[in-house]
Amino acid sequence: MKEPVILILAAGKSSRMRGADKLMELVEGKPLLAHLSDQAIKTGLSVYVALPQNNLAARQIVDGIAVNTLLLPKETTKEMSATIRYALNELKNRASHIIMMLGDMPEIDTTDLQSMIDATQQLPDLVHRGATTTGKAGHPVVFPQRLFERLLELTGDFGAKEVLKTEKVNLVALPNNHATTDLDTPEEWQEWRAL
Prior knowledge:
By secondary structure, this protein is of the alpha/beta class. It contains seven helices and nine strands, in the order E-E-E-H-E-H-E-H-E-H-E-E-H-H-E-H. Strands 5-4-1-6-8-7-9 form a seven-stranded mixed sheet, with helices on both faces.
């Protein structure tokens, strides 16, 4: 029987980090990618990490962790939709649902992921989306298998927004701003650490 899987999208270029790689930023003493992978592994689900082939530092991190690595061909790292399509092609026959996490969200933890899993078990045909306690939509997002073909048709650098626009989405409240804390610049990392 197919089960949900967790997909960590970690193929971004960190272009606003001015030469640094946000996947390597330390969270609780570990690089962010290792931290997020550990949080996902603790759910007991299979975890897949989508990485560009040329990010050797990130590859070394996941080599020592119990995750499955999806090494993306160069042409699939230019747009988020291409990354999603590549990952979906690999996972579509293995998963009942894909729980998509962004690789730059340091506050997502195992409890948040379990909340997403619980919502999926209760309402398996819906899209579930992490949200703040005030209802602002964010991540992770859970897509049921019935939407995999639509996700495979995505184009551009907008991720799965086009699919979300046409679906009934169940917002899953996660603590504070866990669902929306996305750190893209050195200044954002510095401000977040000062909290």
